[in-house]
Amino acid sequence: MADKTAHVYQAISAVMAELAVEGIGKSRNNVSQGYKFRGIDDVYNALAEKMVKHGLLMLPSYDGHVVAERGQTKAGAQIYGATVVGHFDLVSTKDGSAHRITVMGEAADQADKATNKAMSAAYKYACIQAFCIPTEGDNDADATTHEVAPARAIGRPAAKPETKPTAEQETRAMDWIASFDECMNLDDLKRKFEQAFHDVAEHFAGLFTTLFPGGSGRISLMEPDDLLNTGIEIEARPSGKNVRRLSLLSGGERSLTALAYLFAVFRARPSPFYLLDEVEAALDDVNLHRFLDLVHEFRDEAQLVIVTHQKRTMEAADILYGVSMPPGGSTRVVSQRAHDVFVTA
Predict the structure, then answer these.
(1) Pairing, β 28-29 against β 36-37
(2) Looking at the domain 186-309, which fold is it?
(3) Arch. (CATH architecture) of 7-130
(4) 191: number of Cβ within 10 Å
(5) Is the pTM of this model over 0.90?
(6) Could you give the CA distance from residue 207 to residue 314 in angstroms, rounded to a whole number?
(7) What is the pLDDT of residues 248-275, one digit of tens each?
(8) Residues 6+ apart with CB under 8 A from 257
(9) What is the torsion angle, in degrees rounded to the nearest 10, for the CA atoms of residue 236, residue 241, residue 245 and residue 246?
(10) What's the average model confidence in pLDDT over 134-151?
(11) For the chain, where do the domains classified as CATH 3.40.50.300 start and end?
C-alpha cells in the first residue's frame, strides 16, 4: 500500500532526525551579559544543507508589527522594543504540500535594529520548535521561578487616602467630557469638515494664481456624499499647459502646487508659526522668486521657520540660524540678523 503521507511531514521528520544527532551548540557569547546563545547564522548553517537535501523550503512572512520606546542606553541612545508575528511556511519541493508555523518574536535595540532582531528571533525559535532542535543548559520554562517582592519592598508608595476632586477639577472634567461628546457628533464633524474644505478650496484657487500667473487650480471632493470617507482631488493647470493631473507636471510645478495647497490650509486655519523643511529645493530661479513672494505675503500673518540651503531664501529671512563645528571642536548654534550680514557683505 502506497504511503499517502504528505511529503512535507516526511521531510520535516528527516531533518529532525539528523538534527537530533548533531544538534546546534551554543557557541556564541553575549558581550553585555556574558551568557551563551545560538545565533541566527548558526541556525541557517545547520538547516540549509539538510533542508535542501530533503526537499524542504521555509518561506517567512510577518505581520502584527509593534514598536515602542523602552528607555535609553547609558550613552543616551533611544532603545526601542519591537514585536512581530512571523508566519513560516514549510513547503515540500516534491509535491507542494505545506505546513505553517506561527511564532512571535521580540527584541530591543536602537532604531530599525530592534525590528530586524525580532524577525530573526521569530525565525530562530520557529526552527527550534519545528525541528525539535536539542537545547543546551537550563532552558525549560519551569526550571526557574521568581519570587514576587511585596509592594513596599520595591518602592511602591503606600495607598493614599481617597480625596475628593476640587470644584475646578470637576469643572475641567465636565468640559472635557462635553468637548468629547461634541467630537463624537458625526453631523457636527461633517459640518466642520465641509466648512474647512470650502475655506481651503477658496484660498487654494487664489494662491494658485499667485504662484502660477495666468493658470488655474482647484480642489474637489471625490465623494461629496460621503464626507467622512471622501478623498480630495487637486487639479492644476499652469498657464500655457493643457494638463490637470499632477503626474504630468514638472517637479518644480508639483512642488509649487503642493505649496499652494499647504499655504491655503495655513490661511484657512491660521497658526502663530509654521515650519517648512526645504520645500523649495526643487524650484528654479523663477519659481523660487514666486515662492518668496508668497512667503513675504505671509510674514505679516505668522512667523515662518524655513530650513533651507537656498541663498535667496536666506536673503529673504529676518534672522539666520546655522550649526557650526570648528576643526576639533563641537557643534554649536549660531544666530545672526540677516540684514546685518548682507549689508556688511
Answers:
(1) antiparallel
(2) Rossmann fold (3.40.50)
(3) 2-Layer Sandwich (3.30)
(4) 12
(5) no
(6) 23
(7) 788 888 888 899 999 999 999 888 888 9
(8) 208, 211, 217, 234, 236, 246, 249
(9) -70
(10) 55
(11) 186-309
**Which of 52-61, 131-140, 172-181, 317-326 shows the lowest per-residue confidence on average (mean pLDDT)?**
131-140
Q: How far is CA 321 from CA 307, 330, 341, in A?
A: 9, 16, 12
Tell me what the mean pLDDT of segment 277-281 comes to.
89
What SS3 state is found at 323? Answer: strand
DSSP class of 191: H
Question: d(Cα 133, Cα 273) in Å, to the nearest integer?
Answer: 60
| pLDDT at residue 32 greater than cutoff 70 | no
Cα 283 from Cα 290, distance rounded (Å): 10
C-alpha–C-alpha distance, residues 160 and 163, integer Å:
8
Dihedral, 304, 308, 312, 317 alpha carbons, nearest 10: 30
What's the confidence (pLDDT) of residue 156?
A: 52
